[in-house]
Amino acid sequence: MIQHIHRPRATAYVAAITTAVVVAASGCGSNNEPTPPPAGSTSAAPSPAPAGVDDRDPDQVMLWTANQLYSWRPAQDASAAAGFDRARPLLDPTYIQQVGASAAGLARVTGASWARWAADNATITASSRITGDDHPADTGGKHQRVVEITQRISAPGITEPDRTVIAYMVAARQPGTDQWRVSMISPR
Q1: What average pLDDT is seen over the chain?
Q2: What is the chain written as a DSSP string?
């Protein structure tokens, strides 16, 4: 049996492979790759600030964020991470990525307490204030504060003492704007 090589088909096949190799190789040494933005910066404009919050004031940004982060509705919220989700408008996008699925860990609440609050249809409402504690000097791009968060637990027929959380917070100016976003929260 004699096999015939169809020259036009073989030539087209070799040309296609050669073209693919040349195209792939031409991109290997290119200096046209975009430079990634520095850590902590994003190229997108910050999301709009919630009504009533001046996101040009880093203290307002930190207080609003703390209030959202530590206010919960356990009967409706799957976990304390829901507070983190509500705080997203004033969180730095890089920080959101860094925290990821561990957002509930910022809450320091046990599963038993959460289940009890859910069963009691409790609402946990946070109010916060900047403390007078010493903090590093402010810079044009970073403000660091110690924030005291008081959580009031309200449930029909239930009396529970307020909870207090102390958190170290950092607000960072967003690149190319006068807007601030929280870039770190560290409860003590």
Answers
A1: 82
A2: --PPP-HHHHHHHHHHHHHHHHHHHHHHT-S-PPPPPPTT--SSPPPPPPTT--TT-HHHHHHHHHHHHT-B-TTT-SSTHHHHHHHGGGB-HHHHHHHGGGGGGGT---HHHHHHHHHTT-EEEEEEEE-----PPP-SSEEEEEEEEEEEEEBTTB----EEEEEEEEEEEPTTSS-EEEEEEEE-
pLDDT at 23 over 60: no
Beta bridge partners of 154: 123
Backbone angles phi, psi at 158, to 5 degrees: -120, 135
Write down the pTM of the prediction.
0.75
Which residues are 23's β-sheet partners?
none
Starting at the earlier edge strand, list the strands of the sheet with 163-173.
123-130, 142-154, 163-173, 180-187
> What domains sit in the chain, N to C, each tagged with a CATH number?
58-187 (3.10.450)
Q: How far apart are CA 175 and CA 136, in angstroms?
A: 21
> Does the structure show a pLDDT above 90 at 85?
yes
Q: Is residue 98 scored above 70 in pLDDT?
A: yes
